[in-house]
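Side project, low priority. Logging it here so it doesn't get lost.
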Amino acid sequence: MVKRDFCTTRDAAEMLGVSLRTAQLWVDSGILKAWRTEGGHRRIELSSVESLLREESPARAGKSAPALPATLGQLKVLVVEDDNILLKLYRLQFDSWKLPIELTTAANGYDALVLIGREQPDLMIADLSMPGMDGFQMIRSISNSSFREGLEIVVVTGMDDTMIANHGGLPPGVRLMRKPIPFTELKALIEGMINRRHELSRG
């Protein structure tokens, strides 16, 4: 029996323990290397699936301890920032608010897309200038997928409007905030999201 060096998207999803649409997002974003057959079916390189299986660290990265009981329904927040000092600042500030937040962090767009597929956050706060896959590429990948629905995206950047426009701008619905990190604005946004969730749960 000849051993295949590729698999279907559904096979990859099962091996990785994720949903089919998550696997499709990773294919579309280039995280999983794939090609299409003449009939239009995706075929994924097994080596890229195995590589992703070995990368457990991104999905386990930087989760803060819950500040309130999980029964209240935590807001999942993903912060994407390549500056480790700023990531620590995010964690310290978020912990000090004592809000029902589950915080996850990523250092680049590639790791963020992996985490979005696995964690399905409610809010993503992202820098634009990052190594590898930058914030522009990452946000466009998300905007072209089903993961955009229900995901609030906030960009926190030091870039001015001209620089952002030169990179093609940002998709509709993406909030833009400037560095230094506007924690007062972010806290108000997060509290509003939590309050709306509680109102919906009460019917």
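Brief comment: The longest strand covers residues 75-80.
Revisit when time allows.
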